[in-house]
Amino acid sequence: MYVGRFAPSPTGPLHFGSLVAAVASYCDAKVNHGEWLLRIEDLDKQREIPSAADTILRQLEAFGFEWDGEILYQSQRHAFYTEAFQQLNAQHLLYPCTCTRKEIADSSQQWGIEGVIYPKTCLTHALKPLAPSAWRIKTNATPIQFEDAIQGTLSQQLNEAVGDFILKRADGLFAYQLAVVVDDAAQGITHIVRGADLLASTPRQIYLQQLLQLNTPHYAHVALACNAAGEKLSKQTLAKSIDASQANQRLFEALSFLGQHPPDELKNATMADLWHWAMTYWQLENLPKIKNMVVKM
Questions:
Q1: pLDDT on residue 173
Q2: Confidence (pTM)
Q3: Domain at 92-176: CATH code
């Protein structure tokens, strides 16, 4: 059975880029007679905006989304992340790291896809034993390859692309990469349709799935909605919240962005008619096979 999901972070209300990801994952799940689960990724309480989670739920309801089952909140799942962390530690794959970002930048001469590669300074022993430590996982030269339903075949050698990455921060918070792997497995997720900003993270998640002996879902990464400057729509780039009073128009625009080509006569259609059309004509293969696209609204 197809099980998809939408997993927003409560750092602010949904914007058009969020809507695009939600529509894509929802349509693909429902067209395949599957379930669409909802997860609130509220691990980092310092970044969370009070009441943002409730706002997101109201926005989804206003746009006609209907999720299956109970909502999962990451902030309530610390014990499950701890269990997975301990499994990896028992395999001698983790080590504490006390290096600061500045120390890493000053000492590393290798660059990866997200900046400098950690030079394994603390691999054998922590540089500053009394300092708070993050925990890193050892990576290797074995290529991680997967077939993305939109972006095609991708391969990444983790030790050269990202290096030994953090699974638990020095402040005690578990990293996104571990939490998302644990939660996708717990919810039985079989298909992940999400924004292309997470494409480069996928090999790290597959690596963790392999080490934890978890199933790897099917992936499809949707083009990011960007502003005229080419910046991803986000809170940081001052993206506007989607307006529930214009839900019909925004849904039409999201379907158009996703390459579904809804007919012009649906511009003023009811939400029910728009969703009916989307479920009738949805084709994942029509989505633009690019990583970002400027929104024309």
A1: 96
A2: 0.95
A3: 3.40.50.620
